[in-house]
Specification:
elongated, single chain, mainly alpha, 0% strand, disordered C terminus, 83% helix
């Protein structure tokens, strides 16, 4: 059994060390895989092209005030989730103390048993993990909003979207009336 814990510890350390290189590789390969996947089927290509057109039009129409409102909304959500996590952790510490007192034979003022404490702690762990997930989503929305607020980043993102659209259009020679900005390559 000790060997199992040793393997688990080594695997945990390796996962921690390899997390950053794997994240960098994923960020570098994602656009290429998206382009390849979209170009492997005509229907996927049309769906991808319509999504690109929608993203381009949304990015062009978005004002700084709209971005600030998005950032404020994401910031409030982020800090609310953080507040929920901190409250849940404090309550978890309280439940842990109650459990230790009940487990060691101390008489508690309320009629609560060890199993009740364990059930409450399990529900609390669910709340903490859900709040952490929500906090991660809100942090992502916050960082995207802050990046889009920068005119240079916004222009670069717009150019990247247009390049993706043009590459996909040229690769497949797609012309569709529902996508007015798409034209066939000129010969």
């Amino acid at each position: 059994m000790e060997r199992f814990y040793l393997y688990a510890a080594v695997l945990g350390v390796l996962a921690f060390i390899l997390a950053i290189p794997m994240a960098v590789a994923a960020n570098l390969l994602t656009p290429k895989v998206q382009r390849w996947w979209a170009s492997s089927s005509r229907s996927r290509a049309l769906k991808r092209l319509s999504r690109l057109e929608k993203q381009i039009s949304e990015l062009q129409a978005m004002s700084e005030w709209h971005l600030m409102a998005r950032i404020m909304h994401a910031g409030v959500g982020f800090f609310f989730a953080l507040f929920m996590i901190l409250l849940a952790l404090l309550y978890f510490l309280y439940l842990n103390d109650l459990y230790l007192f009940a487990h060691n034979g101390f008489k508690l003022q309320s009629d609560i048993t060890e199993t009740d404490i364990v059930r409450k702690a399990e529900r609390l762990i669910y709340i903490i993990s859900t709040s952490s997930f929500i906090q991660g989503l809100e942090f992502h929305r916050l960082s995207v909003g802050l990046r889009q607020l920068s005119p240079t980043h916004r222009n670069k993102r717009l150019e990247d979207l247009k390049t993706d659209r043009d590459v996909l259009t040229q690769r497949l020679g797609v012309v569709d009336n529902s996508l007015p900005r798409l034209t066939a390559p000129h010969c």
